[in-house]
């Protein structure tokens, strides 16, 4: 099916083509990709956590001179861009190439695949920080990329999953889902850079003190994932208005919207005592599902966006499930600079996983 131009590219046809998650709907060359590389936008079939077929957008990028036939795949989860459709990385100019992991893929000879996630770019609300949704988007993007003619991957291509910040949490969740949701993918490892975790603790902490833009975004994401949640347990009418506002914002706008406000005074409360809320927040936090995929967690100890202790909790939870996890902390690195500080180590680790070097390293406490 030929891809329509402009914003219509992101509007899935009805009925939705294909029969299973990962089926390609359409694709087109991307004019905003990195110089010297071949780039495509794509729309593909995925599945919501409720089991409904949905359309999700994403990108595919590769260096024709470096990624040969049967190249491995780097399926990437992007960091926070916002909640509105216009915030989708594939719609934000060249932003999808700014993560640093396009360069990782290029240097390692991998094909870079990146999901915009459910509800970013495409119709519907975005389940922000909900790992069960974002993980499906990442896995289905890897499936769909194999159906674009000329992309040098095949059914036997090995897969590395990676992500930064929001995407770090999404990548770890995707690796945990892979065995049951996409068992045909040969996932060799996952890299989570500055991943948040333990959403129940995040919501509890952010519900007191100065209102942080992450809180209404997380609550908006929970509502998008499960519209039956009792939102009155987390937000009164004033707080719900803030949640509604940030649900269409990008970049720094959600944080500017709440600047100077107090969380409790604005009507936010911790819903963690409610069984439905508690179950949802735990289910969407990585580390609570046993997985055989080797994990590398990267974090800078000067990160003021995602405190380094959060990835420690992710490691602790995963290790208790028997996961193989190496967690590397980079002194002086912040939320962004940790990408550069860890670049060489990540490439080396990815090379070892693709080569089948065994056993994968672990520093579980």
Layout of helices and strands, plus pairs?
Elements lengths: L23 E6 L8 E10 L5 E10 L10 E5 L23 H8 L2 E5 L15 H15 L12 E7 L1 H16 L4 E8 L5 H8 L7 H12 L11 H10 L6 H5 L17 H9 L11 E6 L7 H13 L4 E6 L7 H4 L1 H13 L10
Parallel strand pairs: 4-5, 4-6, 6-7, 7-8, 8-9
Antiparallel strand pairs: 1-2, 2-3, 3-5
Describe the structure.
It is a single chain. The protein is α/β, with parallel strands linked by helices and 365 residues long. It has two domains: 6-197 and 290-355, 3-Layer(aba) Sandwich (Rossmann fold), CATH 3.40.50.1820; 201-282. 31% of the residues lie in helices and 17% in strands. It is built from eleven helices and nine strands. The chain has helices at residues 101-108, 131-145, 166-181, 199-206, 214-225, 237-246, 253-257, 275-283, 308-320, 338-341, 343-355, and strands spanning 24-29, 38-47, 53-62, 73-77, 111-115, 158-164, 186-193, 295-300, 325-330. The protein has a nine-stranded mixed β-sheet with strand order 1-2-3-5-4-6-7-8-9, sandwiched between helices. Helix 2 crosses helix 3 (166-181) and helix 5 packs across helix 6 (237-246). The longest helix has 16 residues, at 166-181. 53% of the residues are buried. The mean pLDDT is 95.
């Amino acid at each position: 099916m030929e891809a329509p131009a402009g914003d219509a590219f992101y509007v899935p046809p009805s009925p939705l083509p294909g029969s299973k998650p990962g089926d390609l709907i359409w694709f087109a060359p991307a004019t905003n990709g990195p110089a010297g590389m071949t780039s495509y936008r794509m729309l593909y079939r995925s599945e919501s956590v409720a089991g409904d077929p949905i359309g999700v957008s994403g990108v595919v990028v590769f260096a024709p001179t470096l990624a040969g036939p049967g190249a491995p795949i780097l399926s990437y989860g992007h960091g926070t861009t916002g909640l509105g459709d216009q915030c989708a990385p594939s719609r934000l100019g060249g932003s999808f190439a700014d993560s640093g992991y396009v360069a990782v893929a290029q240097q390692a000879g991998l094909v870079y695949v990146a999901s915009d996630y459910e509800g970013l770019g495409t119709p519907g609300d975005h389940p922000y920080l909900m790992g069960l949704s974002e993980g499906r988007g990442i896995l289905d993007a890897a499936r769909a990329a194999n159906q674009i003619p000329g992309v040098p991957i095949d059914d036997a291509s090995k897969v590395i999953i990676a992500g930064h910040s929001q995407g770090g949490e999404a990548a770890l969740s995707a690796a945990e889902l892979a065995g049951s949701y996409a068992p045909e993918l040969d996932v060799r490892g996952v890299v989570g850079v500055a991943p948040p975790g333990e959403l129940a603790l995040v919501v509890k902490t952010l519900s007191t003190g100065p209102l942080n833009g992450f809180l209404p975004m997380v609550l908006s994401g929970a509502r998008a994932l499960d519209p039956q949640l009792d939102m009155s347990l987390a937000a009164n009418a004033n707080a719900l208005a803030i949640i509604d506002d940030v649900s269409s914002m990008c970049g720094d706008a959600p944080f500017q919207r709440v600047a100077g406000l107090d969380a409790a005074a604005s009507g936010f409360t911790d819903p963690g005592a409610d069984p439905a809320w508690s179950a949802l927040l735990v289910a969407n936090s990585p580390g609570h599902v046993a997985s055989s995929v080797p994990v590398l967690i990267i974090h800078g100890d000067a990160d003021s966006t995602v405190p380094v202790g959060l990835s420690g909790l992710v490691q602790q939870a995963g290790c208790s499930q028997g996961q193989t996890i190496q967690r590397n902390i980079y002194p002086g690195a912040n939320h962004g600079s940790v990408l550069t500080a860890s670049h060489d180590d990540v490439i080396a680790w990815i090379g070892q996983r693709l080569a089948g070097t065994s056993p994968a390293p672990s520093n579980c406490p």
